[in-house]
Amino acid sequence: MKKANHIILLSLLLAALLLAACAPKEASNAAVAEDGEAFVFPEGETDFASLRTPGSQEAAYTYQSFFLPAQDNGVQPYVGDTMPYYEDGTYYIYYLKESGDSYNHSIYLATTQDFVTYTETDAVVLEASRSGGQDGWIGTGSVVKVKDVYYFFYTGHAGSDAYEYKEKILVAKGSSLDSFEKVTDWEIVPPSELGQKNDFRDPQGYYDEATDTITLTVTASQSNKARVLKYSLSGDLQNVTYDGIIFTDEVGGYWNLECSDTFQIGNTYYLTYSAQDDTLWYAMSDSPYGPYSDPIRLDGELFYAAKHTENGSDTYMVGWARRSESVSSTQEVTGWAGNLAVQKIMQNPDGTLTLAPVDALVDQFTQRRQLLIDGMTAELSSGSAYSYLDLCTAYESFLLTGTIRFEKNGTFGLAFDYNGRTDKYKTITLDPSGDTLALQFNEGSTLITETPAEIEPGKDYTFTYVQEGSVGIFTLDGIASLTVRLYGVSGKPVRLFTENNTVTVSDLKQYTR
Question: Which of 4, 44, 217, 383 is 20 to 30 Å from the Cα of 347, by its Cα?
Answer without folding.
Answer: 217
